Amino acid sequence: xxxxxxxxxxxxxxxxxxxxxxxxxxxxxxxxxxxxxxxxxxxxxxxxxxxxxxxxxxxxxxxxxxxxxxxxxxxxxxxxxxxxxxxxxxxxxxxxxxxxxxxxxxxxxxxxxxxxxxxxxxxxxxxxxxxxxxxxxxxxxxxxxxxxxxxxxxxxxxxxxxxxxxxxxxxxxxxxxxxxxxxxxxxxxxxxxxxxxxxxxxxxxxxxxxxxxxxxxxxxxxxxxxxxxx
Length: 230
Prior knowledge:
globular, single chain, alpha/beta
């Protein structure tokens, strides 16, 4: 079967990573969670007091970029790759609401985006890859054979994210998560560098009323159609 590049973009908490993992496993493709990469940079900034609720030292973060080494390492027990920051597994640390509150601000920095996009393009040079994020179909892989744009109402996404955090034992409120979702949507769609937009040739999927199995089946059908004609 012909190998293609699958780009999945969309708003936060639309289940992009879940879908991408399903597809990568089914197709035996490489999966790259670009959101984890930006989260890891945000976590680095937090750990080094470069970003707080009241301040953000962009200059210091930019100067520190050469010292930020990101790597995905496959975890056979989990069935997917985890994010490592400077040799440390930070998969759990980067999924907190605290990191979520800062990641969109960090992702606005052009130098950060440039560094990560270069790495992402290198990862996908041989195709057979599923990559999800905010600018995959528009910036990272503008020539991807299949582009998906995922969306759902802010309330639906906040409830999903809230349930997920509750299961992990995080002490958060639904209102706090909803505010985070709305704030991230605004920043992601209004930043100057690579804002979140739907690529002209992307297929939009509103999964507000779709379960994971229905969504997976629909996208797998799209992939089969693309492969037949590629």
